[in-house]
Amino acid sequence: MRAARFQDVSTFSRVSPSKCCQTNARRRRRRERGSRLRDSDNAIEATNDANEDGDDGAFVQQPQVAPSTSASGENEMTIVFVAEDELYSIFVNANDQKQKIRPHRLTTATGECFSPLISKCGTFVVFAAIEYYAMELFLVPTEGGAVKQITYMGADFIRPLSFSDDGSELFFASSSQQQTPDETDVYTLRLDYKNQEKKSDMPIAMHPKKLNLGPATAFEVNVDGTLALFGRNTQATRPWRKYGGGASGDIWIAKNSCPNPQGKDGKTYTDFKRVDALDDFFTFVSQPKWLDNSAMVFLAESKQGERGLWSFSVADNAQNELSRQPTLLVKDANIQSYSIEPSGKCTYASRCGHLYTADLKKGSDSIQQVAFKWTGPRKQLEQRYVTSEHYVQDWDIDPAGRFMTTIVRGEVNSFGLWDGPALKYAPIKPRKDEKEENSEDPMGSALCAKIMRESNAQARSRFARFTYDAERLVIVSDQTGEDDIEVHWEDNRRMPKRLNIPPQTLGRVEEMVLSPEAPLACVVNHRAELLVIDINTGETKLADKSLEDRGMYQCSWSPCGNWIAYTFRRRDAEVIKILDVRTGATQTVTKPILGDSCASWDPDGRYLFFLSARELQPQYDALLQGMSFPHLETVYCLRLRKNVRDPHLKEIRPVGDESYTESLALGDADLDDDKNENDEEDGKDKKEEGEEEKEEDKGMKSKSKERRDKDVNGDDEDDEEEEEEEEEEDALHDKPPNPIEIDFDGIAERAVALPLPLGRYSDLVAIRHDRFMVVKYPTISSGEVNLTSSEDDLDQERGGSLISFDVRDLSAQVLVSSGVTDVHVSMNKKIMVLEKSEKGYTSELTAYKAGSKPEDEDSDDLLYRTRKSGTISLDRVRVLVRPKDEWAQMLLEIWRRVRDDLFIDPLSREDFDWKEALRTAVSTLPRINTRAEFAVVVSDMLSELGFSHAHVSIGDDGRAELDRDHQPGFLGANFSEWDDSLGGYEIQSIVKGDPWSSQNSGSLYRASADIQVGDVLGAINRVRLTPEKTPGMLLYETAGREVLLSVLKKDSGDLVATRTRALSQELDPRYRDCINKRTEYVHKTSDDKVGYLHLSDMERLGFSQFWRSYQTESINQRVLIIDLRGNGGGNISALLLQTLTQRALAMDVPRRGSPLIYPPRSPLSVGMVALVDENTGSDAELAAHAFQKLGIGSVVGERTWGGLLAVSRSDVLNDGSVLSMPTQNVCLQDDDENEHNNLTNSVENTGVIPDVEVKRAPGNMNEVDEQLDAAIREALRLIGENSSSSSNFFGKAVPAAKEQEVSMSNTSPWAFKTFAKFPPTLAEELKKKVKALEKTSDDSVDENDKKTTDTKEKKKKKK
User: Fold this and answer.
1) Which tens digits make up the pLDDT trace of 1135-1150?
2) Contact at 8 Å (CB) between 702 and 671?
3) What does the angle CA 1094 – CA 1100 – CA 1101 come to, to the nearest 5 degrees?
4) Three-state DSSP class for 878?
5) Superkingdom of the source (predicted)?
């Protein structure tokens, strides 16, 4: 519906399943196993039920065998496994396999169940399940019963690993309290039993304790508790077939440092040593387990290609050496997951979902397939109806703007805009007598057609368009196994037909536009070929072809139907080309600067409007002091003939005259001197026709107004009268339009820019009377960028404003202010339909008169959907989904898209058979009962490619009715275990984060009371905490809400209550604390000579992180450590390398202040260090490779992931899943001594080998980071070797900029008074003077009285 422009940036992002789906990754290609595998010709099942030949009808995963008891026989075992996303148990007797047994269902979870683990006593099973917004651990009795939740950590990833030797502790891996996105750690959960002797009752789980061992996929203690096994990257599946990257699996062994533990802390294991000897024998190892005190079992593939279960022994005094050669116990290339028991009993599940048992002591000869009768509910296979919400994949309107079509989950529906039922168009079923024409089948089309018929796959329709006469609907469907075109009549009495265009000719349809005047269709396929097809006969003509990927799009028919304008991608830029449908000739009509696109014809045939990027208006960047081009495009107008008026010359017309004629378009004078009188008469006729058309429009307006008034009043229109009026209206316009004449001589020079500001535009649509509409996207921030919300700010997701522009007076008007993501106009240019999307889904469709401003309606009144509001109700569309039939179609579509779009043709490869991979996947479909199981099959098929970046996300998981809307809350703190003496949980650490951000700071840090480490949390929301009621349990359902905490102050002993708001996630504040801690450590250790920054990805978040820290960390000649550990990739390595490879040319030295480097922010350091690990992937690997090849610096750490291919696009499947695959190879310019100028991809499937290799041993990752210490040492080495050159340059400038520092030590104290009263007002001064005068007069009176008294006294004395 819409193609992107100037956004074809190839991404090198590591595409890996989410942690909750890691077990659904790659496995080896299926090999022939004699009688166990069916012949490929019979591999397609036509039924979903179990057959009579032993097919159990279930897809078994992750089996676990229960420990042997005294009552169990030698050949008896209890097995718990995952099927239909639930747990089942089954009792197996190896001696009696004739009678099929029935499994017993243990759980009914709202989410998918993972990784069952049976307790040492065999009475209960611990498993992981998705509940609410997180993944938690649960337990259930082995014989069945109530399910009990035992963790409340709110983590995205959790897996049970093993039990302690006495069964009192559970070890599990979790991403709780993670500081980086890829971080997990081992936790221990103490289990308290009421009956300590029998341990038959369900245990009570305490608060979990973190062991700080680092990321782990396996941790197990041997039988006597003396040794511990630690596995990293040893998950059940590899990324892809023949994987050879850095994440191939490591096994470490450690001794118990406390053989006789005292107290509740239990045993501790330190001094882990890696089993390096395995590297000499195997390409990968996975799922290591203890068999006894010294023997280990693991799944591996040798360098000779033997795959199965192997064992080896560890010597007592030499844990890092193998005492003997590895032994192959069970040879089976299809083992997916397994479980063993100390007696040697083994059970495993194959990649095809079968369950097997074996005896490790007897070897491969003891393998037996477990046959059982499957009686699972198959709940997700039930057919169900879905609404159009979130599943509208395509839509269109009819030529008159009365009806519209939608495609929902691959089904076509048509209905009136506001009234009428939703009519369905079923794909045409192939005839039984149809046979494959090409027996060789080089493209696999015959195989796809066979699978579609025999599996009863639900065909998918991707395009549905009305013909010019509104009598037919042209649909693109894959009912035949490949894309083909079907023509359906609106009159259902006529039979639809399929055009049967060969797939070699038609290809996969990417765009289809129908002619407004003839039964012709313009089609662009995946090979960038432009086809013109006669929908009556199926005749197909190849009109044009581009050599670029997605090199042709945005086709637009001229109103007369003679021309097609389209965007053609060349290697340098995109241009607009025009095809003459009558002759097949093509002509380039624009001369682009950066690119032209989105052509739209003026209905009157005078102009061709298009978008172009020609004017560059740079703007200053607020941070980088550079320039960028946030706005590039604007609308241009191409005059199709020389005598057409320049749109900048406005029309001269009287006041109130809204008519428009060709003569007025030419201006005041005739531009053609040879024009004769007949032409003038023709001009008059056209003017009269224009006036008549105006009157007709006025009449139609009055009629439509009467209809609306009647509809509002509730009066129904008579159907027959409406049909008669429509027939009369059609009769008026039954004449064919005048053919548009195009003067190609100098046409590219007649393009002029219209007065619209530069911006980001799309969906340019021309309408009548020299007007057009266009969607303009705002340049705004998408919000806060962090680890949990850092998606790209896509225009197609946020929408823009709809603008109408009138060429006659060069004026623009905003019709809709925001939210518009797509706009369609009917063929008669009278009706427009707007689409508003939310998070990538169609949320609303509204219809209005083309070019008119919609009336403001109350958005809260969702029931007010009428002609007046314009809102189209999509609730009428109900689609019946048959999950298994839909999965079969999706599997075929994935296979075809990989065949068509992979950077290399998979059918031409000799090392594997892509058709056989499809047959194997289809043969597994009968046992698939859930969407998660189907994801395993798809992942297995894609892993056969042997390349990275091939992945399918899960769309509709079929569990929507079971989802619960509960979300855990977090305080941003770590708590100890329950302390009886304190009566609560002691606060061990408080997360700070960014204090200014409410989302990226710790909740407890922002609390109103002064909470300190060592204080004790006693209650939450007045609910008292207990050993059973942990903080995580009471914080569920508090995310984003205020909570009241009761905290006991450790220093004063006071009990305080404080309010705070719980966080919905705490990854971002913990990540910020981790980076700040690492930065301080690097500065302190290196004496402030080394800087540090971490990039979590190579996308918007990584770009933000780089520029947040680069300026401060690279100042003062610091050698910069760029930490790429855990970086999954993206597409910004080129932007970062531009800065890192820039060298300083000069320094601007001011009289005062620090010297300024030129070019700004050029690194002055003597080198850099890149820190990598096995999780560094894709574009981050390209950056690490550049460090070595461009001489930027050294690479320290572990060998990287090994996946460097480009993903340029993604495809949405029928249920909303997204398929991504490598569509571009990446060739590296390696400067080898023996092979100069050799273009290779040495990173793919190998990884970047660091200059200084450092393996991370399990241990306290928060206290000791061996790789970071090695990076600091390497940085200091670079400083010591190369400091002379840059220091001399820097030293010349710094002294000149320094001024003599003023000594402040001997200065005398200041005598400033820091407080003074306000000065008196005028009234106060007058009052003061009056009082002074009164006092003065009183004093004078007293003086006179005193003198008089003294005189009298003197007189008395004289007498």
Assistant:
1) 999 889 888 888 888 8
2) no
3) 35
4) strand
5) Eukaryota
